[in-house]
Amino acid sequence: MTKIYLIHLLTLIAFPSISQVGNQNIKVHYINIGQADATLVEFECGVILVDAGAQIGSKAHQRLSSERLINYLNEFFERREDLKKEISTILITHNHNDHTESLDEIGKYFNVKAIVSTKDYLSKNKDVPKFARSEGAKVKYLNYQEAINYKPNGLYYQEIDPFDCNGYGPVIKVYSGEVGLKERTEVNGEKFYPSYFSNPNNNSLVIKVEYGEASFIFTGDLQEKGIEYLAAQYVDYPELFKSDVYQAGHHGSHNATDSTLLQMIDPKITVISAGHHSQRGLGTAFDYGHPNKEVIELINLWPSMEKRAFPVDQLIFDGEETNPFNFNISSKTYCTCWENNIVIIADPETGEMWVNNNP
């Protein structure tokens, strides 16, 4: 069984220090940018970014959110001077502003080699093609039919997985894309309609990162119908999505994490990216009710989830624009809304993991 350790900021007793486990580790940085997503995946020889959003709703929140992301990345590249401010690939799970809004700012400060997403013809968000044109980055658009044609192997292009890392590189694959149904379609006895996929959320990329014995999965804002479609398409491959770490879909929304998805993933640790409960107004965690009580309860009791050494009380919501309340969390479930930035460090040889609040 993969071991997962929690490193408290001041208490390192009985656990190996991060410096002892060498440079080959994978580090996944869940960056606190409020009610939005941006996750930096760090390897010895380079980095990718999963989503590059900013909190929407007000210009002040948007500006602060983008500033947090840029500041975090600047501080990161100051430590990793060898990377020369280069991001090998940005994987945009879907075209909503809370996942794309910081692209322009990123282009001002960093060199991005490639960007991967879906075209989402129905979406008004054109941040990805605009970024690709202005920055000269390679662009790769993914569609579901292509992923199905290659199943169960997933989409595995250089733009998705650009790393070798001296022969010991990660494996990064995408198992979905823009659905693009034109008529009712039946998949393994279940009926799906084009209207189910009019929302970019249900066209989210499902991305799995494997690095030796460690695995991480990202599902964007995939909602119920998108989850059902994924499960139906890959019903014959029950082990395909098993992952140690799950970034909870849609910021801990009630409609993006269910028992079907958790059975597919069987995570040991879950990380949520959501805004702080104290913010009010359009586009905030308070506005959406994130993270949601039903989701936290489900994850907290899921059999595969590792338990904390010491349960903690954290604030969650029971609906949109309701007062948050304390909930006792015994599992290794974390949220940027509670812990600020979260960094998971994994040893690819042993699968051992450390959870830290410092980059």
Layout of SSEs?
Layout: E1 4-6, E2 26-30, E3 39-43, E4 46-50, H1 59-79, E5 86-91, H2 97-100, H3 103-109, E6 111-117, H4 127-135, E7 138-141, H5 144-149, E8 171-174, E9 185-187, E10 190-192, E11 207-211, E12 214-218, H6 224-233, E13 245-247, H7 259-265, E14 269-272, H8 285-288, H9 293-300, E15 307-316, E16 325-331, E17 333-335, H10 336-339, E18 342-346, E19 353-356
Parallel strand pairs: 1-19, 4-5, 5-6, 6-7, 12-13, 13-14, 14-17
Antiparallel strand pairs: 2-3, 2-18, 3-4, 8-11, 9-10, 11-12, 15-16, 18-19
Description:
By secondary structure, the chain is α/β, with parallel strands linked by helices. The chain has helices at residues 59-79, 97-100, 103-109, 127-135, 144-149, 224-233, 259-265, 285-288, 293-300, 336-339, and strands at residues 4-6, 26-30, 39-43, 46-50, 86-91, 111-117, 138-141, 171-174, 185-187, 190-192, 207-211, 214-218, 245-247, 269-272, 307-316, 325-331, 333-335, 342-346, 353-356. It has a 9-stranded mixed beta sheet with strand order 1-19-18-2-3-4-5-6-7, with helices on one face. Strand 13, helix 7 and strand 14 form a beta-alpha-beta unit. The longest helix has 21 residues, at 59-79. It starts with a strand and ends with a strand.
Strand residues, percent: 25-35%
Largest sheet properties: 9 strands, mixed
Strand order of the largest sheet: 1-19-18-2-3-4-5-6-7
User: Number of helical segments?
Assistant: 10
Helix content: 10-25%
Count of beta strands: 19
Mean pLDDT: 91
User: Segments where pLDDT lies below 50 for 5+ residues?
Assistant: 1-22
What's the N-to-C terminus distance?
Answer: 26 Å
Radius of gyration: 19 Å
Write down the overall geometry. Answer: globular
The class by helix and strand makeup works out as alpha/beta
- Encode the helix/strand succession as letters: EEEEHEHHEHEHEEEEEHEHEHHEEEHEE
